[in-house]
Amino acid sequence: MTSDVPSPRDEPVTLAAIAARAGVHVSTVSRALTPGANGVSPATAQRIRALAAELGYQRDPAATTLRTGRSSIFGVLVPRLTDFVLARIYEGLDAAAARHGYNTFVANTTDDPALRRERLEELLARRVAGIVLGDARLDGDDLVKILARRNIPYVLVSRRLTGHLSVTTDDLLGGRLAAEHLLQLGHHCVGVAAGEPYASTGVERTTGFVRRYAEAGFPLPPEYVLPSRFDTAGGHAAGAALLDLDPRPTAIFAVNDTAAIGVIGALREHGLRPGSDVAVVGYNDIPVAADMPVPLTTVHSPMFEMGQQAMGLLIDRLHGRRVRSKRLRPHLIARDSTLGD
Amino acid sequence: MTSDVPSPRDEPVTLAAIAARAGVHVSTVSRALTPGANGVSPATAQRIRALAAELGYQRDPAATTLRTGRSSIFGVLVPRLTDFVLARIYEGLDAAAARHGYNTFVANTTDDPALRRERLEELLARRVAGIVLGDARLDGDDLVKILARRNIPYVLVSRRLTGHLSVTTDDLLGGRLAAEHLLQLGHHCVGVAAGEPYASTGVERTTGFVRRYAEAGFPLPPEYVLPSRFDTAGGHAAGAALLDLDPRPTAIFAVNDTAAIGVIGALREHGLRPGSDVAVVGYNDIPVAADMPVPLTTVHSPMFEMGQQAMGLLIDRLHGRRVRSKRLRPHLIARDSTLGD
DNA sequence: TGGTGTCGCGCAAACGTTTGTGTAACCTCG
DNA sequence: CGAGGTTACACAAACGTTTGCGCGACACCA
């Protein structure tokens, strides 16, 4: 029962407590414990640090924030963490933040404009050091305007917005890769589950795809490009609609894997098999894609790295370093959902 | 350009600012803005509240926490948010917390004892109002001991620990349901991807399953019950090992859906089809389960509700109300991965 | 040796809030 | 009408930290 943990009984271990025991002023302790130490001799600094470690001192974040007006927290806004892609990106963000001594505070916005506005205000009230926006909107995003106006450091991730710092995959290229693959397999009548119109991911993947098909001499009729929610149900609905078209598409590109699985569900309801009857291509390469009964052809994107790099850029920006947006390179992984078995 | 948002230029709107404009003392403003208002006349309270609203006042959480020693944040510890089940539970937790005016602060622990210990200390340093533990361990969990010893309000979710407040599904029953289903289909030689030995979820689902089979007169040989990680890769590995047994099991129960999909991947590598060649049962009913090329038979568990109820219990406990652990009722959903097509 | 510079540390104020205590003014009632 | 009680507010301290300022002590150099 020896206390490896500071015992709960004694008075809280604050700067003052350490100062008392060390026989110095509290301000000296504060300086000794601050990495950019100045105005304190190496000897006493060492002594104080040892004492602090021994007592298990932990800086009170509330007091620090109150005094400095800044906290060591980054706010993260995402549509929803149940989307594997965002959850994985968040892990990357958090890991990178931790490496630099920061924490992250994440909030789901469900892509609801009012809610994200509200959540942002909460984050700002907590004096976050910066904001990671995972739910940027193409339809006149007011959040980025607020951030820019108030001069809050921020970075976009996953979704792009011209004129704003971001880390994404090269979605135009990703879309082209999907198209290229299906063209090579001889598909000329294809459909797209295009995602939400306010998300650059869906829009650009679709654009890249459609352009490549147009270049190949097979422009897609508008009704073969359907907006869709990003979840399984959304993909299912879009897939069902696409399969009812005449002529029926021989291949379907869904702008994310979860929706692609929904499309596969719709195929089943039509008595069709993915790969052999209708080719299906997804996007992101989430882990389940490879292990499904019919493995999913998909465009692999480095989600964890995307998160890490976004956080890296944000921290660089915070330190006044010059930063530039990044587009990570995706690549296609062909599996049975297009190759057949 | 009229400011719907408090313009950034002016001095920050604090209690003092409101007090000055209202011609009262700051303490009066504080009391007027506190729900359990006392010692302030209804008239001035109303006047102050109107003024606060007009100025867009937001209470500074750092100052409040510093003064009161408590924040309006609940800490949430989960193994990883990329696990859909935990992400969904978290959404339930957060939604319920928001309804009561609280925020949540979530941290991934990757089931690493050292890391979760570290994360917990960070949360406690932030003076969280309570802790939700989503990664309780059966192998002598030191975190719950710390929480109990320091008298921090907490609740377990997803995983159980006898003697500690928790909200889970009835995993013993869930395991039985899976067994019952496979027995009815005539499977007598079955395998289990049992999950991590330190997680009550996997252990109890396995126990329920194994017991039912023993009762039916088909006790499982130990080598047919394999520990496994909870992710797709873990399920894949366990599945591959089970399929190499002689005699080969005609059905496999995986204690969560993600692992079940991994098992399906292993089946494919063996040239086997789920449902027709080997039956597969998962657990949780994550959304993709229903839409896979061969839809997955699984035990549905109410993840969102689990989160909501856990948070509800924690808040009740905080308010000194008597609370009891809950086990939510799961039910089996039969699909093609056991019924064939 | 005296003037100048640097170093190490103490002092005190401030961040915005909550809350116990003090104190006028008012109401009530015998 | 005066004693006792209540109401409505002001006052001030405190939470733990950071940081500009001041002041001795010491070193250095001419």
UniProtKB/TrEMBL annotation, chains A, B:
Does the record carry Thylakoid as a key word? no
Q: Which UniProt keywords apply?
A: DNA-binding, Transcription, Transcription regulation
Q: Which Pfam families match?
A: LacI, Peripla_BP_3
Q: Where is the HTH lacI-type domain?
A: 13-68
User: What terms describe the molecular function in GO for this protein?
Assistant: DNA binding
Record flagged with keyword DNA-binding: yes
SUPFAM superfamilies attached to this UniProt entry: lambda repressor-like DNA-binding domains, Periplasmic binding protein-like I
| Family matches, as PANTHER family | LACI-RELATED TRANSCRIPTIONAL REPRESSOR, TRANSCRIPTIONAL REGULATORY PROTEIN
Protein name per UniProt: LacI family DNA-binding transcriptional regulator
Q: Which organism is it from?
A: Streptomyces kebangsaanensis
